[in-house]
């Protein structure tokens, strides 16, 4: 099995945001993935929905043996385990959340399906906070 280099973006705007982000990273690592690099924390306003809660965000590079869909399944299970009750890809709208974990890049592949888009173009080009976090990661 080969190792895949993956860039993730994580965000939280409910509860202890920094602790939520660290807990998510810990769970990713416990699932057998290597956390290679983590950015500094960056706070930002909510994007694509109105909220009075500020987001705390980080970027991370991980190495994994999982396929893109296996990784997506793992990340969605971590989100659910941590208390995320909705998925914007399913509901079509964004809400406050304990944790959000997005796959931004997976090696150099380009892939589009209903469940997964790699690379995640909104984070690469449309969202200011993402560009700031990713500047040293891609």
UniProtKB/TrEMBL annotation:
Domain 7,8-dihydro-6-hydroxymethylpterin-pyrophosphokinase intervals: 8-135
EC number: 2.7.6.3
Name of the protein: 2-amino-4-hydroxy-6-hydroxymethyldihydropteridine pyrophosphokinase
GO biological processes: folic acid biosynthetic process; tetrahydrofolate biosynthetic process
Its biological purpose: Catalyzes the transfer of pyrophosphate from adenosine triphosphate (ATP) to 6-hydroxymethyl-7,8-dihydropterin, an enzymatic step in folate biosynthesis pathway.
Protein's organism: Chryseobacterium takakiae
Transmembrane segments: none
InterPro entries: Hppk (IPR000550), Hppk_sf (IPR035907)
Family per similarity comment: Belongs to the HPPK family.
PANTHER family: 2-AMINO-4-HYDROXY-6-HYDROXYMETHYLDIHYDROPTERIDINE PYROPHOSPHOKINASE (PTHR43071)
Assigned keywords, A-Z: ATP-binding, Folate biosynthesis, Kinase, Nucleotide-binding, Transferase
Pfam families, sorted: HPPK
GO terms, molecular function: 2-amino-4-hydroxy-6-hydroxymethyldihydropteridine diphosphokinase activity; ATP binding; kinase activity
